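hey so i finally got around to running the thing on that chain from the lab meeting. sorry it took forever, my laptop kept dying and i had to restart like 3 times. anyway pasting the input first so we r on the same page abt which one it is
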Amino acid sequence: MITVVTGTDTGVGKTVTTAALAARSGPGTLVVKPAQTGVGTDEPDVDVVRALAGCAVAELVRLADPLAPDTAARLRGVEIPPVAAHAARIRELARAHDQVIVEGAGGVLVRLDTAGGTVLDLAAELARDHPVRVVLVTRLGLGTLNHTELAVGALRSRGLDPVLVLGSVPAELGQAERCNLAELPRVTGVPVVGALPASAGNLPPGRFRHLVPTWFTG
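ok and heres what got predicted. didnt touch it at all, straight out
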């Protein structure tokens, strides 16, 4: 099985959600980051995942600047492989692992290559010949209904039906957060199968893995 983790935006909790999904999947799981940007300025996502989940990880492309992958590549005059090449590499890795979890960059339509291929294109390409589950990570606060509906619509336009995970739930919910717990599945028609507390990424790895089952319902 290949799981593609994407989001409604950057900073919604994709990396910690990816780590939680990897810890939940257990041994034999590989996490793949097709394009890692901001190398040298931020802790790489795969390092965060490796520390929290204790699983194997792989990066396909590393770029220095903390920007969208194609922007970071164009800024430096670097050519990065097309989405089809990423998909071929992921399929190869999937043959050697029980589970492969692919963490995208930013949102659904963020470009992963300098030819215009997006996270959505990658998920659709993988789904042509392999079972693919798409996990859409979203916020709970004000503005999330619009962003989440747009992302779900884009995924469905390519025949992909996602599930939702709330990537960073605050300890205290305001009116918008309380309402959106019910509104997100209602307006999107997509189930919410997980909710991670905002503090999850700061937990010690052992505690993180212990609590993972309590964050998911499906």
